[in-house]
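Forwarding the complex inputs:
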Amino acid sequence: MSDRISVTLVVNGREYRRDVEPRMHLADFLRQELGLTGTHIGCEQGVCGNCTVLVAGKAVKSCLMFAPQAEGLEVTTVESLAGFDEELHPLQEAFKDAHALQCGYCTPGFLMAISALAAEGRRPTRDELRQELSGVICRCTGYENILTAAERYLSKQRVSEGVDGWGI
Amino acid sequence: MAGVFEAEATEIDVQKGTIGVSVARKEDDRLLRGAGRFGDDVQPGHCLHLAVARCPFPHARIASIDVTQAAALDGVEDILLGSDVVSGSDPISVLRPVPDAPSLNFFAMATDVALFEGHPVASVVAVSRHIAEDAVALIEVDYEPLEHVFDVESAMDPRSPVLHPQVLQSNLLARNRTGAGDPEAKLAGADVVVEDRFVVNRVSGLPMETRVIVAEWQPGARELTVRHSTQVPHLVRKQLAESLRLDDGAVQVLATDVGGGFGLKLGIYPEDVLACLHAMRTGRPVKWVEDRIEFFRATTHARESLHRVRLGARSDGHIIAMTDVYDIDLGGYNSPMGSPQLTSVMFTGPYRINDARTERNVILTNKAPVGAYRGYGQPESCFVREVLVDRLARRLGADRIELRAQNMVRPEDMPWKSTSGATYDSGDYEACLRIAAEAIGYEEHIRRGRGPRSDGRYVGVGLASFVERTGYESSKFLANRRSRFGAHEGVVVRANRTGGVDVYNGVSTFGVGSETSFAQVVADVMSIDFDLVRVHLGDTAASPLNTGGFASRTLIASAGALRRAAEELRDKILRIGAFVLDAEVGDVMISGDAVCMRDDPERSVPLAEVHDRAIINQGMPPGEEPGLEASAQFEPAGAAYGYGTAAALVSVDPETGDYDVERFVVAHDCGNPVNPMLLDGQVVGGLAQGYGQAVMEELRYDEETGQLINGTMMDYFMPTAADLPEFELHHTYVPSPVTPFGIRGVGEVGTVPGAATLANAICDALADFGVEINRLPLTPELVWKQIQAARARGHRPDSDARVDEDRQGTDGERHEAT
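Prediction (whole assembly, two chains):
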């Protein structure tokens, strides 16, 4: 099990090279190798979606992907949304204003899933959002305020122009 | 007064006060950046990682364990077996014992016999979690499977094995009776008796963060520092000290951000003791992060119970008696918080019933132990009671709203003592009932008449009324139940040099917004800027000994302590400020970030200067003590009883049993809200969990193997964003007379009415089919089976005839269970 392999990938705009066990999944890689602990792990079976990140611009459950599978790809995590000393990203502001988080554990997963919709220039209806976001589980909020925050944020995005201000 | 809140944060006007304002949360900035500090985000240097070997059988004797191969694996540092745990620690203490029950002496690891699938039998620490798990896979355990006990009924069969033969002669841990009057005589004389046997499903509260512990031991100082994913750091400290035979003072527990609790993170679990023992044996930090497969087998389940309920009434609808004999499926042992007792306390709900009794049987089975879960016995009692109230209405041909209103405790009856001894403090129960009925369109529904809608679906409206205990009656009440915690809370409020105020309390941050609501109380009492208040939670070394965050009590109890301490601090600040301004104390006030003259706010001294004078004891008024700090303890005068009525509109496909919840309304009294936006968040979150239990969630064990069938998130169906209806909230605001600021707890209320409301709505939709429901969850399969059962009894949906009242009573219902 100790045979390590080299992985090179770009996370939030910065290139990292690490030698890891082949069995290390991407979520563990982000947390343990890079110290990016904003990506949370809830089930390691691809159900809860709390570990959702963007890989090559698409929302991916990072527990379902081995780190070596992300070789050469661009990964975007919640830490990309606002720098340490920067104001919150408009999506984060929308969450705060709508009380769309309670314990905050699932929140990064939702932020990244919604970021993927924004990046695709999507502006789903509330009912479509229910489906789009059904891959991330929240146990605190009952989802309504998350849908409200997503709706308010996405409605301000220009269709097809994606999202700016990611700080990456 | 009723109103509906909007989820939109608002700004504070310090002059108008900060209580009652929907201010955005202090917690949010770090959490939104992914910069919270959850247990797994902390990794000390030289940390070892714990993995636990668990018994795969529900009941087995451990004949032998061979760890030779595991110990030889490179990177493995320590292995614990049951015998090590028994010699190195004491049994896990119980915080809330079952009344009249003997102690079961539960150690952190099975020694001879494992009692449920998932029971720890060995543990390993290694330099990585991967290696620790590899080592667990190399441990060879020779099990002798024993006959297992599957459910409460088989558990009481004299031929069944006894789980704890050293302490008990059967699997009945305790039988607790409560109540008053003579319900048997009243039932015998009742014009109508409705009764049934109800099956309540076993579920998991399922916080998104599993349990985590990071234990660090300093060998020389013999001190243990533990970072723990808990709602109750001080109780964890107490229990760890007890199990590990340490002085209280040698243990510090820290809980910063906790990813949801819901009652599951109260008290310690076996893995906590194991992690600490390993840390104490190796001298290295030990971390354990529960994985989700472990979670389903190792973290307490909840709610499974079997109820036999009778409700007696006069022909005019007056309910005269009620009984509930119920069996709780405890699992293999009594967890620190144990099985729910509130079912007995709250079973008569909002109704004036003078003759009512419960019998609560706590029964051991070979399943994972049950523990606290949001609502803690109240969703169960609401379900069985409100379903029977609807049946009573159908039997009598009475209107369901009027029947409820007729029997409800009235405002002029308050304070009202129920047969269980609960003292309902205040409220207008009927007001919420009427609001819910109007909001759901009850009259219109009745006017519309029966029969299918144009789309072929049958529409039903269901209601459920409830009263919910928030907080505790008193520490004396808890003492009578031998609970090892009090009803009070303690805080420290301390001024700092930059003009701010630091608040310290021992609850942790697990989602309910305490950092925000505590700061609102302090800012309001002191008239200082909300932003100047910083709330530090969850560190036992920094906060007064306290009870913790559960039982919808955090704000009720803490607000009183916060108010006292903040008043003391405020008064001293005013004295110092008046001295600086050369004024009378009565002529100055605090406004935002300064002390100023009431009649000339421009003449002021900044709080930073006032605080600094006190902190360095220079430039103080004569006779004033140095320092600017206050601590306070507070116990509320009683429990605040929340209440309300939920209503749902469903449409059912009679061919498949599939149904849609088209609307779900709740009218709820929230007392005086501290932060309306957060309050709504709590209520809706609870409704979502109650909905999950009602409609889709159930932990199922295989009867033959005794193993959990659906113990993964792929197989356990918790609600997603696509599954829930939009909950419509309506509030009334009757201040509680027994709590500071008239607050009622709101943390758990949402879980209470869901199952009853939806069951009643489905039964209403299918009333002409003769469908009755007596178990959860309300799957389409269950509904379909009930339709088939009703058809088999000869009911025809298209005949408008009411059910044969002589036959359709208790006997017919009792045998419908699927």
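The first helix of chain A runs from residue 26 to 33.
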